[in-house]
Amino acid sequence: MGKKPVFATEISDMVLYLGDDGSLYKKREKGNVKEKLNQRIYRLQDRDELRLLVVEEPGKIFDTIVISLIWPKNFPQPKLNMIAVHGVGGKEIYVSENQANYVAYYVGEKALITIIASWPKGTFDLPWYYRLKDWLATRPGYLWLATSSIVALIGLLTVGILAFRRFQERVMLKPSIRTTPPGTLPPAIIGVLLRQKIGPKEILATLLDLANRGYLYMLDKENQLIFTIRKNDSVGLYGFEKALLEEIFKEKDFALRHDFSKSKINDLFLSIYDLVFRLGLFVKNPRDIHLRWRLWGVLIAIFGILGFLVSMRFFPDPPYVVLFWIGLIICGVIIFDLGHGFTAYTKEGLTALQEWLSFANFLGQADSTVINSLRPEIYIRFLPYAIVFNKGAVWSKKFSHLPFTLPNWFISDRPIHSTIDFYQSLIPLRIHVAESLIREVRPEID
Q1: Is the residue at 43 inside a domain?
Q2: β-pairing, 61-70 with 7-18?
Q3: Do residues 210 and 386 make contact, with C-beta atoms less than 8 angstroms apart?
Q4: What is the DSSP letter of 282?
Q5: Do residues 85 and 112 touch, judged by C-beta distance below 8 A?
Q6: DSSP label of 4
Q7: Is residue 19 part of a domain?
């Protein structure tokens, strides 16, 4: 048994007024005071229209409901319609001069009644912001989809143009093959010279380079790398190398720290970028260029998010306008994520890059005859640079057929018979140290 319906035999009246500017007012029950409503006239592609849901599941049954709509006297007669569903016995519309009476009979508890009135386009003097809003809302969905794609492509194009400029600089280089490093710069500096940013490869290569130079011991125990400081002094260390050792190790035992200080790690990265700039390899400090483009990316994305939220509030149906803001958000993300690598090289920087790329060619292309003629320790000595050039696996494979002896700074509790075994044993070092350090860096610095 359902709830017994409540009958209201009286007539329910509602009086609505339209202003010249398309505003909608409702007459209060007592007196002649008008209350402005949120609903209004909307300008569509071919008409000015009021579409208003006036009855929504009233919860009781009415014999008759009358909704009166009054518009300015000097306006033309509108086209009128009334949609009454879910329990309405009948409906009629009566018109006299500048007033229409929408009448519904035997209105049920679940009834929905919508009144519609439309005038020729431009009849109402809508405020400019409503005209703009309605114009945007009536643009077809494919147009907004195309606009969204174009805005996203602008971000990609911006990145592409700047990347192409750097490519033009590199395409002029003529790297050959050289069998020795062109200098004594540490691997982290070479990584920034190559990619203009610091990543896990640079951190991993730096730790191996420090071990090669006698500052670290490494113990591979139960598939976990444990470290200890080998030298007590910091003679021969760059500032960032000293800071790296101080931050990773607690005192001088074999305990690897995981509670990295974000401020110290950030300072460490900044010191690397500052050193690269002081060496005269770039026209501007790479970290300043990173910061500038990432800030632009953040601002564009935030503007897109705010626009998206506003559009969802004011353009709920149809929601095509939000596609523009989605495109803007994507544009900001592209610039933020790819906005590094835009720093111009100096003449000296391009020369250094060419020489180091020549050395990289050797690491990746040396044939077996050349490899067989090298001293065994060359593999370990050049491995940090091979990692920075993304040739660590290739470099290790070239020595895999030769007898391999672990370096004196590396001890393992499992058999390591080849350079490939050794290279794979460094995976925990990359995961637990290098990548952990990178995660601690503020986005505008890395």
Answers
A1: yes
A2: parallel
A3: no
A4: B
A5: yes
A6: P
A7: yes
